[in-house]
Amino acid sequence: MTILEERAAVDAPAEVEEAAAPEVPPPPDPGGAGAGDRDDDALPLAAVLRPVLAAAFATAAAGLVAGGIFGSWSARLTGLLGAAGGAGWTLVALRSKRTALLQGVFPLVAIAAGGIGLVLRGESPGAMPELVGDAISAGRLFRPPVPFDPGWTVILLVLPALIGFAAAWVGAALDRPKLAVAIPLPVVALTAITQPDDGELIAGLCAFLPILAALAVLFGGDSDRAAGLGGEFELKRALRGLVAAVPVVGLLVALNSASFLFPEPRYNPDDQPQKPRAVPLSAADDRVLFEVSTASDLTGPWRGGVLDIYDPDDGFWKTSPRDLQRFPADGVLSEERIDLDQLEVRITTRDLGNSTVFPTLGGTTRLRFEGTRPGGARLDPRTDLVRMESGRVPADTTYVLELPPYATAAQLETATVGSGGAFATALEAPPVPAMVRQLLAGAPDAPWARLDLLRSRLLSNVAAAGPGTPVEVPAERVVEMLQPESKASPFEIVAAEAILARWAGVPSRVGFGFDGLNDEDGTFTVRPRNSAQWLEVHFEGFGWIPLVGAPDQAESTLDADPNARFDPTIEASDDVAVEVYVVYELESLQQLYERIRSQLLRWSPLAIGAVLAYLGWPWAAKARRRAKRRRWAAGIGPRAQIAVEYAELRDLATDLNVADIWSTPLEYLYEVRDDEEHAELAWLVARALYGDLKDTVTDDDVAAAESMSASVRRRLLRAQPVQSQVLAYFSRASIRQPYSTEVPNVAQLRLPRVPRPRLRRRKRRLGGRGPLPGGARA
User: Fold this and answer.
1) Which residues on adjacent β-strands are paired with residue 771?
2) Helices 490-503 and 434-441, interaxial angle, to 10°?
3) DSSP string for residues in 14-33
4) d(CA 636, CA 624)
5) Is the dihedral of CA 119, 125, 129, 130 positive or negative?
6) Strands, sheet with 518-520, edge to edge from the N-terminal-most edge strand
7) 328-356 pLDDT per residue, tens
8) What predicted TM-score, i.e. pTM, was given to this entire model?
9) Residue-wise burial string across 522-551, b where 16 or more C-beta atoms lie within 10 A, e elsewhere
């Protein structure tokens, strides 16, 4: 039986009217007003405003605290705008006739808002994926406050918007306002632990005040009682709440001053030596890193960091613990040799990428900034490096380096080396192998001569091969490189030089950064292709001296002779040197695990998107079907329109698994709880389709059917458990088996099936069992 089938009138009109008025009073409408009083299926404003506001305040806390990671009020306001946009869109969707459509397009709207944010920051929306990826990669390298790159604008707009939309929808549409306030709290907790030191109090206030406002809105009374109390009572209650919040804010300030809310971490990675990680030059864009201007013949090496701790247990060279101090007012980095005649080198930074270190020269005694000194510039006295405490080195910063001329080989022949506590770490090395002991036994007593002998042996035998990626260099590997015709990477060669220097009794470390200059129309520049590693040794009276050597020569080369460092016959590789080092904590390195995790992270967004698209297809298909049915019915007439509205109700019941598709509209009344509006709708459908109203249906009857169908659908949905409501959105039951096949439906989405061998072919392969009685075969 179909609902459009012509039938005879079932009863007289008087009897229909009498049956259409059940004695059981109708249940209260969760929306706060009778659905029959509205001409659409939108929820009343009074029913959704309070949970939406509570969700908006809670999400605002998440957006503000997340923006605090960048130490920027523009970032906080961006997160706040995203939270407000998400909650506001929920309010618009619930008040619209096209709720499902607005709900489905919101992710696209959020991404479009992120694109608008990029335009406002002078970037192209087409570069959104690249900018977001760069922002995330850079954010992992810095301590808060993290630079507020354009890609973070997209993230701070889209993520709070999605969270705000989800929280507001749960609070208003699913009638779970307490859960709506709880949804953004994990984000608040996670982002609160990564606040900069000077932003912890602001983060506490940004988290506490909006959540307090959310709780005040949530527990301030339901809409009916609040409306009865009047605006004056609401105002007085709000003022009392503000007065009560003042001492709580004072307590929050006191706890922050006592480091109670944001205690010092029990483990700080900067307090421990860290393994380096290399980024090959092939991964770096060719760009000008900085420009150099000097009257001297110095062309480097430009220090970007040092590895001065050798761990004999694993053979790794590591960065030293970082203990930053305020940048000295006079710019003095080292008192050693400051009384000698100084050379001057002027450097102007351009695009150093995510580097936190100002390029300097080994042995620099003073650094003078021209103009305003960048905020956050700090001195690391152990390495004499000047670095940003947080964030990257700002572009277009000019500073002058002062340093004495480098020592010559003749001067070092009579120099002594430092010893004692200050150089104990710089002399740590594995036990001296027998081969090296034999070489040292025949070497002179002078430290420089001993070092020169070992380096000459190494550089005359080893050949550079492979990328300059930091790897472990145990004592056994150093012995291998001392053998004729051996091969090693540039990093291994420099690391071996440093170990040999320590075996010779000379404090040493591995320096990395850049070496050489590029003459570009009279401007001397340094680019990523100038990346290099070198040996640094310390001699009394001369400080730390960089030694740049080539594997195909035996003589030591000091930086004072720039022409000796460059061999035009050697072809450079784009993976020869280390560009930057980033410290990180890692207990053990499992290469397979790292590769698998990298691929999972790379493809997981696509996989998750495909799964979500597959799961969300029924919701979009049913929204499209509803619009398709209404257009079809509008072209036929009022009876078809009433049939479509009732079919929507019965299809929802099918998705909720509370339906019997074979029951007529009147029979279905006995399968659900008594409801006056449902009964009126069922009698209207019965009379309009195959009763006394089939020839006299009016547009008013159609409007009444639309209103009653929307109201009954909403109350039928809310009467089910939350899990049933969620499953109904993803259910394909009403698409596979709709209530009526006479109204339009949508095609089912079917995944491709793997072809299976036919049973007949399988029997043919296995053979039969022989004839059965009667001539049949098994």
Assistant:
1) 777
2) 60
3) HHHHHHTS-SSPPPPPTTSS
4) 19
5) negative
6) 366-369, 398-403, 343-349, 290-294, 523-526, 518-520
7) 988 898 888 888 888 999 999 998 888 88
8) 0.58
9) eeebbbbbbbbbbbbbbbeebbbbbbbbbb
